[in-house]
Write a structure and sequence with these properties.
The protein is of the alpha/beta class and about 375 residues long. It contains ten helices and 15 strands. The longest helix is centred in the last third of the chain and has 19 residues. It binds nicotinamide-adenine-dinucleotide.
Length: about 375
């Protein structure tokens, strides 16, 4: 790689929330968006002059080294594979895919093209997660025997914004219409996989959906998804337990975790009033987070959404390319966060049997 990454940014919704133009080793070479007003927004935000109306057109641009894919979830696998088959590195919004076959196909595309792939999992770089990961790596938790990981997004009780996203400005249904909670698992699973790098291997899940919502149920959305609420119990390849939930429409909000280790426990702040605390055996509690902004290039030291994670995701992807190494949330970690949700959805559809998650790692168990 040269000392500057030339990136193309695709998708002007969440794709406009990153700091590519502020990284000293990154240039936004072009943007792509189907919707003209969003295309213009990307051009202005990232200070670049070249815009395409589609990812396919952007992929013909030889000056682009890497592509940031921020299209809707059902397109992630197809778009990521197209990027990598064009010989370009790829960072993609969560999750990797919504089927196990597509998870395998994304891994195959990464391997056959010798390019880098990263998933932009915001839970990985929430500041609480950074701290807990580093304490875990320093041995302060021992094993994390049990964790509770969850993503709650209200829909009905005055937080109508998610449901509003079910339709585009022209009134057409978007990919979010009736989308299954467990097919969007990575904000939850990322809290465990992103800390201990364990694999979630056995899963039993249940789901619930409102019978009076015309968008939820078999035949009512393109996914035939009957659920808006999903709860599961998972077991890891080290035998540890994880209660993993993804729910829309309940009266609760947030992406958070509680980690219970042998010698320490950590609680993220929550909508019920739980304050942030790490409790340790024989050591003082930690109630404040370090200032991680100092770890970023000076030009990128800004607060962002999703627990301050956005510039960290931006920085990690660019640095990995410059340093010619795998990014932190590489394709195997990304699939380890994604596949358990696909299996949880399958379990819930069958009424809750315990199902195995296949291993997608290059060496099983690593
Ligand atoms: N915390 C998080 O990690 C987080 C938060 C929000 C969204 N997301 C994810 O980010 C992604 C984007 O979310 P969003 O809310 O912006 O969705 P969105 O549907 O509003 O935006 C996707 C955009 O991609 C564009 N697009 C799709 N296919 C294209 C193509 N082939 N060429 C050019 N443009 C194309 C669409 O026109 C659309 O504007 C989703 O996968 C979502 O799940 C993640």
């Amino acid at each position: 790689m040269p000392d500057k990454v030339r990136i193309g940014v695709v998708g002007g919704g969440f794709g406009a929330a990153f700091q590519w133009h502020l990284h000293p080793n990154c240039i936004v070479e072009a943007v792509a968006e189907m919707r003209p007003e969003r295309r213009q927004r990307l051009l202005e935000l990232y200070g670049c002059e070249k815009a395409y109306a589609s990812l396919d057109e952007l992929l013909t641009d030889d000056r682009i080294d890497a592509v940031a894919v921020f299209s809707g979830v059902p397109d992630h696998a197809r778009h990521s594979i197209a990027v990598m088959d064009a010989g370009k590195h790829c960072i993609c919004a969560v999750p990797v895919a919504i089927t196990l076959d597509d998870c395998a196909a994304v891994i195959a595309a990464k391997e056959r093209n010798s390019v880098r792939y990263m998933m932009a999992e915001t839970s990985y770089y929430r500041w609480e997660t950074i701290l807990v990961r580093e304490l875990y790596e320093a041995g302060e938790f021992g094993d994390v025997l049990y964790s509770e990981v969850e993503y709650y997004h209200p829909v009905y009780d005055g937080h109508a914004e998610r449901k509003a996203l079910w339709w585009d400005p022209e009134g057409n249904r978007t990919w979010r219409y009736g989308f299954a909670p467990f097919l969007y698992p990575t904000h939850s699973t990322g809290f465990l996989v992103g800390v201990t790098r364990e694999r979630l291997t056995k899963i039993a899940a249940l789901g619930w959906g409102p019978s009076d919502d015309p968008g939820v149920g078999v035949g009512r959305n393109v996914y035939d998804n009957p659920f808006s609420v999903g709860a599961s119990l998972m077991q890891t390849d080290r035998g540890h337990l994880c209660r993993c939930n993804v729910m829309w429409g309940i009266h609760a909000h947030g992406e958070r975790a509680q980690w219970f280790g042998q010698y320490a426990a950590a609680y993220m702040p929550g909508c019920a009033g739980q304050p942030f605390v790490v409790q340790r055996n024989g050591k003082p509690d930690i109630t404040e987070l370090p200032d991680y902004l100092q770890r970023l290039p000076e030009s990128m030291r800004l607060q962002s959404g999703h627990g301050g994670s956005h510039p960290f995701l931006t920085n990690e992807f660019v640095n990995a390319l410059i340093e010619d190494r795998e990014p932190a949330v590489n394709v195997y970690e990304a699939v380890a966060m994604t596949a358990p949700g696909i299996v949880a959805h399958a379990s819930a559809l069958q009424g809750g049997p315990q199902l195995d998650v296949p291993s997608f790692d290059r060496h099983s168990g690593t």
